[in-house]
Design goal:
The protein has 547 residues and is α+β, with helices and mostly antiparallel strands. It has 19 helices and 23 strands. Strands 1, 2, 4, 5, 7, 9, 10 and 13 form an eight-stranded mixed beta sheet that branches. Keywords: Membrane, Nucleotidyltransferase, Transferase, Transmembrane, Transmembrane helix.
Amino acid sequence: MSFAGYAAPPLDVSGEEIRLADFPVGYFVDNEQSLDYETARNHAFEPANSTATLGTGASVTWHRIELHNPGLEARALFLHMPAAYQVRAIDIYEERSQGLVGRATVNLNDASDNPLMYRGTIVYPFSVPAGETTVFYIRSHLYSHQWFAAEIYDDKNSRKALVGGHLDIALLVGMMMALVFYNGLLYFATSKKENILYSLYLISGVIWIALSYGLLAKAFNVYGDAVFILNLSVFTMPIFLVLFMMVIFETRGFYVTEHRILKGLLVLLVAGFCYGLFDIEGALIPASTLAALMMVVTFSVSLSILRKGHPLAKFFLVGHSFFVVFNGLAVLFYKGLIEPNYLNSRGVGIGIVLEAITLAFIISYRIKVLEDIRAQQDELKRQAATDPLTQLYNRRFFMTEGECLVQQARTTGEQVSVIALDIDHFKAVNDTYGHHAGDLVLKDMAGIFQKFSRDRDLVARFGGEEFMILLPGADHVEAEGCAERIRQGVEKHVVEVGNGVSIRITVSMGVAQVNSAAESVEDATERADKALYEAKAGGRNRVCSAA
């Protein structure tokens, strides 16, 4: 036998059920990328596992698998290569008794219609006669990082393997898409820049996960150079993450040193992305190292921002710790420095999803903080615009808002009127019953003024016992009618001030229609005041109109 170097022990395929997914194989790296089958089969092989990653320096590798059937019947089996969706081309040489008995070539650029390709997995049928040995020599040509996975099944287990798989990846992608939808709703609600950057980060993550873990191939049956360019998402993910950090932490304005560090990292990532547009294979070779640098820099920057007291940094660090740990395992896996297992082979996907969930929480928390601040500002504005006792608008707000309404009426031609109100003999109420009773009277009067006014009318307390009402869309006749309703309502009302004491109150009012073309709201209130003084001089508890 001409085989040289390491020889993996032959796999016994005589059992009743064959399901081999983890077994020793031989391999060597074809650095010249030019060896043919005859030369490769005589090459010295090294030990490896049927699921292995060899990093970026092994673009073309040869693998040797030996199977022996000591039974009395031939075994019909299937060679699965579940990571075939990532390769550029696969050549399979089937040898028995040192003679070539079968051969297949799958070029991934033409794999959509290849009968051996099934949803990203190469399925090569073969048989091992009774008492004989079959040897496979497999040439795997990848773009940048060398992944290899081989499995041997009988017919029943082959079907099970093809039906199952990728459910975990579909779950990860589904969670990411749900976050994209959720974040889209947040963007329409808030229009914040961080929502756009987070969405782009999520979309890049979805593309990378679906591409790298075979979901894209399984769902759409697409392979080769046309989809390999989507690996640029390995650059866009950290680009959008860094931009997200700049926005969410407001580094430009508050953390100048950290902002410069992030900008430097961003330049490297953008340079890698631009280089990848022309040479994606070359750009992916240093991608793992750049990813490691990105994780160190972003983690250090967020830690520095935490020490400076930013409230969101601790949440970011939690999510980013997941990203760093799982992606660190993935980087070691891609470089072939650690043995493959589920966690490190799925590390990037798991890390992205865990961090994405945390970033969603950060966005929600930030929105809550901003809403609280906005609510506080609105409350301060409300307090600045209202009278603390009656909760009516104050004089300043009335004059400002009234002037706007008068200017609007000047444009539309709408009528506007004002009513000046004053509580009759209010000083006597305070002197007789005390200021507490006076306050109760003011509160009750405020409620009556609002009750008998229209919803669109602006009711304000000008100070002491004086009030003012602005009536948009009302001429002096309608304003007089409103004033009379208020006068009668006050006259019929009884104010209970405690200890069984009841007080009856009356009001005097002056009405003025605003000449919006020639006067301001202040001029109109002065005329309404003059009419109010006429009402008081005429005996109180009445309405007078200004000329």
